Amino acid sequence: MTDRRWRLWAVLIALAAWSGLLLQLTLVTARVGSVTMAMWRMAIFFTIISNLTVAIVYSCIAFGVVRLRHPLLIAGLALTMLLVGSVFELMLRPALHLSGWRLVSNALEHDVVPTLAVINWLLLAEKGRLRARDPWIIALFPIAYLLYALVRAHIEGFYPYPFIDIPKIGWPAALGYIAAISAAFLVCGYLMVGFDRWAGRR
User: DSSP string of 80-120?
Assistant: First the structure.
């Protein structure tokens, strides 16, 4: 029964993630006129990279790759998608006026997939396995993205998010935003570790 629930949840999450990504790819391709260019444009966004990672991992789980149900990986995906959803809701949504299919793709990528990833971790992930250092291990993923995004943005002149738009807001403001987001990320990570240990004892 547990294996069946895992695979059903994995199918649901993978479908939501792939749907959002493919819809976004279709919309961007229509705007730039090239699938290749659209994929390159999309690849600078943390939302896209995170959703793609979720789509791949949960697709593999849906096809029976049990080792990818590792507690650290599932918790890491949940925490990463929590970051995606929270930053969008608190910092980006107020400035956006979306409609039509753009609204649908954004809802899938920023609301549906993060919610499903967190619920899956709560319900199905093996508890009692997370360690105190794990939030820092999970944080390596957004840190690597930040370095990649800043280097690419410096070369191309396009900054994917306003809170890291160095030419516009300057380094002090950008570092302040990064520090605040990082602190919130780690706090959420340690709350997950605390819940994991409590649930493991039960």
Answer: HHHHHHHHIIIIIGGG----HHHHHHHHIIIIIHHHHHHHH
Length of the chain: 202
Those residues whose C-beta lies under 8 Å from the C-beta of residue 83, and which sit 6 or more positions away, are 50, 142, 181, 185, 188
Range of the domain at 186: 2-201
Residue 171: how many CB atoms within 10 A of its CB? 8
Q: Are 8 and 120 in contact (CB under 8 A)?
A: no
| Predicted model pTM | 0.94
Among residues 58, 51, 52, 88, the alpha carbon closest in space to that of 73 is found at 58
pLDDT-based confidence at residue 120 (cuts at 50, 70, 90)? very high
Question: What is the pLDDT confidence band of residue 1, given thresholds at 50, 70 and 90?
Answer: low
Q: 170: alpha, beta or left, given left = phi > 0 and alpha = psi -120 to 50?
A: left
Nearest to 93 by CA among 119, 70, 73, 111: 111
Q: How many domains is the chain built from? A: 1
Cβ–Cβ under 8 Å, residues 71 and 14: no
Return the half-sphere exposure (C-beta side, CA atoms, 13 A cut-off) of residue 154: 9
Query: Which spans in the chain are helix H?
Result: 2-32, 35-42, 46-62, 71-87, 100-107, 113-124, 134-156, 166-201
- Rg, the chain, Cα only: 17
**How many CB atoms sit inside 10 A of residue 9's CB?**
19
